[in-house]
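Today's session is about reading a structure prediction critically. Students often jump straight to the picture, but the first step is always the sequence itself: look for stretches that repeat, for charged clusters, for runs of hydrophobic residues. Only then move on to the predicted structure, which in these notes is written as discrete structure tokens rather than atom positions. Here is the chain we will use throughout the hour.
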Amino acid sequence: MAKKNRKTKRTKSAKPQQSNAAKAQSRRAFLQYGIAGAAVLGVGGYFGVTSLQASICEADLTKLGKGTPTIVQIHDPTCPVCNALQRETRKAIRNMDGDRPELLVANIKTLEGSTFAADHGVPNITLLLFDAKGEVQQILRGPQDRADLTPLFEDLMKRHRPRS
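Below is the predicted structure for this chain, in token form.
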């Protein structure tokens, strides 16, 4: 018995055609979401750059002893206790009235930061309070609360006013 060779005619699948009004609405939605997405990325980029600039500024240990009392945190960015201490320190400084000390961060994951910590004989989770001349006035080890830090920082500023 011979097989019959049947050819079936394929037809194009019938796609529903979008109306011009639906296409226009789709383009508007894309543009609205695109604009909103660009705005979100722009705002995120701004805060990212601002944060990076602050981090670079705080890491500049050459500012120490240049006429302003300074707090240097010995910091390990992978340490949750160090990150909590950094938040509390920043909040304590923001809570201050009048002049505020400079905040610097010695990141022990960098050569400069680890050398600084070794030169001062301190581990991470430490705050070093320096006078305007760059001389150590106080060492605070371990976790600290902003309520305890603010009066210490204010006292540092009263005893060691910045040079005018």
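Discussion point for the tutorial: Residues 20-58 form the longest helix (39 residues).
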